[in-house]
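PROTEIN DESIGN WORKSHEET
SECTION A - STRUCTURE
LENGTH: 122
TOKENS:
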């Protein structure tokens, strides 16, 4: 069964950091680009950034460009989203998604995880 599973979400204070993980099973993660998206209550899903098969990074949201970064460990079939200097407006459900063969800023991804909640609050 092809599956992506996010983990690492939770409650963090403003200014804090979190690292989300996206683990793949049932397919070869290394041949896919992996993107991270988020959806806040009452808002549309927003594309944040993506890592290509070769490790190149594309940012789609200016609001996270200087604070979030993405990395991948193909040997562990896992992609990470490092989030620093978190703000209350970062509160959302965060999703990872796999796209073949390259990154894209829109929702046209082949596989999606179920999402993990991130809440930034004091």
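SECTION B - SEQUENCE
RESIDUE ASSIGNMENT:
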């Amino acid at each position: 069964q092809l599956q992506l599973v996010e983990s690492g979400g939770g409650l963090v204070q403003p200014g804090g950091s979190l690292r989300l993980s996206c683990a793949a099973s049932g397919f070869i993660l290394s041949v896919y680009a992996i993107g991270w998206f988020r959806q806040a209550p009452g808002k549309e899903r927003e594309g944040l950034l993506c890592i290509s098969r070769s490790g190149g990074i594309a940012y789609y949201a200016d609001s996270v460009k200087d604070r979030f970064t993405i990395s991948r460990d193909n040997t562990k079939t896992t992609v990470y989203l490092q989030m620093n200097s978190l703000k209350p407006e970062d509160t959302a459900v965060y999703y990872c998604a796999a796209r073949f063969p390259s990154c894209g800023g829109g929702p046209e991804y082949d596989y999606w995880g179920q999402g993990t909640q991130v809440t930034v609050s004091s």
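SECTION C - NOTES
DSSP finds no helices and eleven strands in the chain.
The chain has a mean pLDDT of 94.
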